[in-house]
């Protein structure tokens, strides 16, 4: 919005020329989101504590230590992230950009679904919110709308096509199957981030790392000169998503202030489902779906650990891990929570660097 208001004054006042620069507006989005998080965080936490009373219900089949250390902590903190991201994006992004609105649609749609899930858990005082089947149906419906939107906006050269890292010219034309593929990417990423959100600070930092990485990827893909130099597929208008990614990083930093061990608030499904959905959608738009699997490898490791655990138990009656998702496995091995969290952060950084290296290795 500020881009539209101030850019026309650039010819008379050189300062306003800054609003034409994507990098400046991305920085503005980061700072705005951080500021909003710090200003609204204490108020929101007080409201959530007052409304929720005993806080988020803790699973009895989870680590027994959580029944003591996590008890009474309010959930739905993801609302703070959504509020900061939304305001910062609306202020600093070019609102005529379809990709920005598409990502916001998925983010807020999944956020609303997560809010409904958290609300039912808190009001019923158990860990059963929206049924798994209903949740998946809604997620796929939102993803379908997003994929149809993306396909309509995409250029003919890239529509329905899958790009591969390390291979500069190869595009696999999947036809309408690409819509199904994109839906799976969005839904899987959303649930993978949701499964990762099990320890204080565990999910939000890898989300910020992934958002930073895709902010750079969006900027490069949306710039014809840089994309040609790096020999990656140019996606016109995708650069504006760097502003959204910046807002996500800023909101994440602000939320981490309150989510750092011991957490004052949990993001809940309100945050985890929406953040994962946003990352998945950006991965599809920028034609870096496979690279998302590398940069977001930690999320996928968490999701796969659950899938392996369930499959193994149903087929053989035995468990591969002491507890799933895999971060609980390490808790059962005796690792302290801060040790697990920080080591997983390190893994997220390494995977992000590996994913970004694909931009040059063509």
Give a short synopsis of this structure.
By secondary structure, the protein is mainly α.
Q: What is this structure's SSE topology?
A:
Elements: H1 2-6, H2 22-52, H3 66-69, H4 78-92, H5 98-124, H6 132-153, E1 161-163, E2 171-173, H7 177-196, H8 204-222, H9 224-230, H10 241-259, H11 268-285, H12 289-295, H13 297-316, H14 326-332, H15 337-357
Antiparallel strand pairs: 1-2
Helix pairs in contact: 2-4, 2-10, 4-5, 4-10, 4-11, 5-6, 5-11, 6-7, 6-11, 7-11, 7-13, 8-10, 8-11, 8-15, 11-12, 12-15
If you had to describe this structure to a student in words, what would you say it looks like?
It is a single chain. The chain is an all-alpha fold. The chain has one domain (about 20-355). The chain has 15 helices and two strands. The protein has a two-stranded antiparallel sheet with strand order 1-2. A hairpin with a 7-residue loop joins strand 1 (about 160-165) and strand 2 (about 170-175). The two termini are about 35 Å apart.
Shape: globular
Rg from C-alpha positions? 20 Å
Number of domains: 1
How far do the termini sit from each other? 37 Å
Biggest sheet, in brief?
2 strands, antiparallel
Structural class: mainly alpha
Helix-strand topology string: HHHHHHEEHHHHHHHHH
- Looking at how many chains there are and whether they match, the oligomeric state comes to single chain
What would the average pLDDT be, to the nearest integer? Answer: 89
Side by side, the strands of the main sheet go: 1-2
Unreliable stretches, pLDDT < 50, 5 or more residues? none
How many individual helices? 15
Instruction: Assess the beta-strand content as a share of residues.
Output: under 5%
Number of strands: 2
Proportion of residues in helical segments:
55-70%
């Amino acid at each position: 919005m500020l881009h539209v208001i101030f850019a026309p004054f650039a010819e008379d006042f050189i300062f306003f020329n800054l609003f034409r620069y994507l990098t400046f507006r991305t920085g503005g989005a980061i700072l705005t989101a951080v500021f909003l998080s710090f200003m609204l965080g204490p108020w929101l936490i007080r409201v959530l504590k007052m409304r929720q009373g005993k806080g988020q219900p803790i699973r009895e089949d989870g680590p027994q230590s959580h029944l003591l250390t996590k008890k009474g902590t309010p959930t739905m903190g993801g609302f703070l992230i959504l509020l900061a991201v939304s305001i910062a994006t609306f202020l600093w992004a070019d609102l005529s950009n379809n990709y920005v609105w598409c990502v916001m649609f998925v983010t807020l749609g999944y956020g609303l679904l997560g809010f409904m899930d958290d609300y039912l858990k808190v009001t019923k005082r158990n860990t059963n919110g929206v049924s798994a089947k209903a949740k998946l149906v809604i997620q796929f419906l939102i993803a379908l709308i997003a994929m149809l939107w993306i396909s309509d906006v995409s250029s003919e050269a890239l529509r329905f096509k899958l790009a591969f890292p390390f291979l500069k010219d190869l595009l696999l034309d999947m036809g309408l199957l690409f819509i199904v593929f994109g839906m799976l990417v969005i839904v899987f990423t959303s649930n993978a981030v949701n499964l990762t959100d099990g320890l204080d600070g565990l999910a939000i930092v890898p989300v910020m790392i992934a958002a930073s990485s895709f902010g750079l990827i969006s900027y490069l893909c949306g710039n014809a000169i840089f994309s040609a130099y790096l020999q990656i597929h140019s996606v016109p208008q995708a650069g504006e998503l760097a502003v959204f990614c910046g807002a996500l990083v800023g909101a994440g930093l602000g939320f981490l202030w309150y989510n750092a061990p011991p957490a004052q608030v949990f993001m809940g499904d309100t945050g985890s489902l929406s953040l994962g959905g946003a990352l998945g959608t950006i991965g599809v738009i920028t034609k870096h779906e496979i690279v998302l699997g590398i940069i977001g490898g930690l999320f996928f490791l968490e999701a796969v650990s659950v899938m392996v655990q369930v499959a193994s138990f149903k087929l053989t009656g035995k468990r591969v891990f002491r507890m799933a998702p895999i971060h609980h496995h390490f808790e059962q091995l005796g690792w302290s929570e801060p040790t697990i969290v920080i080591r997983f952060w390190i893994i997220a950084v390494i995977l992000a660097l590996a994913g970004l290296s694909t931009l040059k290795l063509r």
